[in-house]
Amino acid sequence: MSHLRFKVIEEAFDRKAIPVEIPVERPEEYYGKYVFNRKKMLEYLPRETYDALVQAIDNKEHISREVADSVAAGMKQWAIDNGARHYSHWFHPLTDGTAEKHDAFIELQEEGVVEKFAGKLLVQQEPDASSFPNGGIRNTFEARGYSAWDISSPAFILGKTLCIPTIFISYTGESLDYKTPLLRAINSIDKAGTAIARYFDENVKHVISYLGWEQEYFLVDEALYSARPDLVMTGRTLMGHESAKNQQLEDHYFGAIPSRVEAFMLDLEIECHKLGIPAKTRHNEVAPNQFELAPIYEETNLANDHNLLLMTIMAEVARRHNFRVLLHEKPFAGINGSGKHNNWSLGTDTGVQLFAPGKTPKDNLQFITFVVNVMAAVHRHNGLLKASIMSATNAHRLGANEAPPAIISIFTGKQLGEILDSLEKSNKDELIDFAGKEGLNLGVSQIPEIMVDNTDRNRTSPFAFTGNRFEFRAVGSSANCASAMIALNAAVAEQLTEFKTKVDARIERGESLQHALLEEIKTLIVQSKSIHFDGNGYSDEWKEEAARRGLDCETNVPKIFDAYLKQSSIDMFKSAGVFSEIELHARNEVKWEMYTKKIQIEARVLGDLALNHIIPIATRYQSHLVDHVIKLKTLFDKNKGENITSQDIATIETISEYMAVIKAEVAKMVEARKMANRIECEREKAIAYHDNVVPCMDTIRDYIDKLELMVDNEMWPLPKYRELLFIR
Ligand code: ADP
Ligand code: MG
Asked: Coil, strand or helix: which one is 431?
C-alpha cells in the first residue's frame, strides 16, 4: 500500500494560512528599504561622491577609483547599518537564475579583525567561475572570468548579504552572462532611437527601453510536491492523468484568492516592496493553482534585475507558507502553462511614450515611425525572436492550443491596422497635404482613439500591440527576460539606424522631412506586411498561410536556435554592438547543451519512475486480480466462473500489455540516449535528443497515465493531478 501519498494528502489538507508579519509602517515608508537608492546615497555618500556617481549613471560614464572607494565605504556603512554581514557580486550566468558568491566584510589587521570594503572589490572581482556555461570561450584551465559593477542598477540587501549587480565577462572580454549584452542592446536602441526621435524634438538626449513583465506561476503544497520526484527533479510532472475537473468551468481565473495563497502573496509583496520591486497586480490565472504577479513597468535593465530577484524571493517566501512555487512553463499536461508576457515600450528622456499615439499629427507621425520600424524589425528577424524565447521547457508551451503559436506574427488591432492600410494606399498628393495641416487625409488624425478603444485583444498572438506598448507574449515563465529583450532591442536598433540612413538620403536629395518619413514608412509597411496577422494564431490555416508568407515555421527546438547563426542575425548583432560572431557561436553551444541536459534529466527521472515506482505497483495490483480470479473460479462451476471473471481477465491482460509497452519504450529511450550521448557536436546531439528521446518519453507517459486509471486508487504511489491542483 502506498502510505506516503495519503500521508501527504492529509498533511496538505490540514494546513491553515500562515499569518504574515505586516510592517506597522505603510508601503510608502518601507518601499526600497533594502535598496541603496539615490536617497540612501545622498545620506551615506559625501556630496562630491554622490554627484560624480549620479552623473556617471545618467550619462553612462565610468567612475574613477577614488569615487569607487568612496562609494564602497558609504555602501558598506549602509549595509552594516541594515544588518548585512557579507557582500556579493550578483550576476546572471547562462544558466537559469542568478549567481552569488558571498564574502564577509572582515579583514585581518594587526589590531584584529575590521570590517572593510574597498572600491576595487566593489568595482571588479574575479570569481573562479570555471564551471559556469561558456560555450567553449573559456577553457577550465583559463578559468578567469570577471564580474564588474553595473552602476545603473542599485545594490540591495538580500537576507544578510549586500548584493551588487554585476556583468560577467571572460578574460578576453566576451560576455558570459545575460546582463552584458542586455546593456549593450539598451545602449544601441538608445543611440538609434534618439537619432530618430530628434527628427521630432531636438531636445531628446536619450531613448529608454521599458519592460513590464507579468510573472505567471503555480503553487503546490510542499508535502504533495515532495512526494513527486518528477516535480522535485525537473520542475514538471512527467506523468499524471488529467483530472476530471480542471479549467473547463473557468472558475479559477480572477476568482477569489484562496486564503493560504493570499497570505503568500501579501508576504511576497511586502518583500518585493522592501527590495524596491514595484509589485502591483496579483490575481488567479486560468489554470487551477495558477497565479500571476505584475509590477509597474521600469527601465528594462532594472526591470529584468527585479524579475530575477523576484524569482529568487518567490521560492523563499513560498517555503514560509508550505508551498513550492513552480516557474516551469508547463508543470501539468492538459491545462494552461505559464508565460511571462514582456510588455515593452520605448520612451524619450523628455517624457514621450514612443508607442503611444499623441495629440498632434506630428506626434502621430513619430508614433507611426516607431511602430512601423518595430514591425519591420520583427518581420526581418521573426525566426530569431522565436529563438530568443525558446528553451526545452518553453517548448511545451509554444504551438500548443493554449499559448502563443510557434510562429511570430504581430497583432495590431483594427484601428492601427486601418491606419497602416490607409498609409500604404495614400498617394503622393495626400502626403504633401500632410504638412502644416491639423488633421490629415491619412487617418493619422484618428490615431489618438486607439487609446480609448483598445478592447479587441487577441490572446493567440505572440506579439501584440496593446495601445501604448507591444506585448511579447511568447516569453516563458522561467526565462531570463534579457534573452528576448536583447534580440528585440538590438533588432529594432538595427532597423531604426537603417531607416535613418534612408530618410537622410531623401532629405539630402531635397525632400521634406515629412515626405521622406512617409515614403519610407510606406515602403516598410509594404515590405513587412506578412508579419501582420490579426486572426486566430492557433488555427491550422494560419500555419499554412504563415509558411506561404515565408515566416519561420520551424518547430524543432534545437533547429530553432540556428536562427542566431543566420547571416542576418550575425550582421544585426554586430552592427548593434551586442554580440560578436564568437559570442553567438559560444552561446548557441550553451543553448544546445542546456537543451540536451534538461531532456536527459527528465528521461532519467521518467525511466526510474516507470520501472521502480509504476511497474511494481501495477504488477502488485495485477497479481491481486489474478488471485481474485483464481479464487472465483474455485468457487463457481466452470461456465459461471468463466463468465464472471472475463472482465477481470481482460483487465489483467491489458495491464500486461501496457506494462510491456512501458518496459520496451524505456529500453528504447535508454538506447536512444546512449546513441545521442556518443555524438560530439552539441547541435546534432540536441537534435538526436529531440527526435529520438522525446517521442519515447511521450509514449511512456501515455501508458502510465492509462494505468493510473486502471490501478486501485489506494495503491497509486504518486499524488494525482486532482490532488496537486485542488488542494491548497
Ligand atoms: P494584462 O494582463 O491585461 O496584459 P497587466 O496589468 O497584467 O495587463 O500587465 C500589464 C503590464 O504591462 C504591467 O507590468 C504594466 O506595468 C506594463 N505596462 C503598462 N504600460 C507599459 C508601457 N508603456 N511599457 C511597458 N510596460 C507597460
Ligand atoms: Mg496579465
From this structure: helix
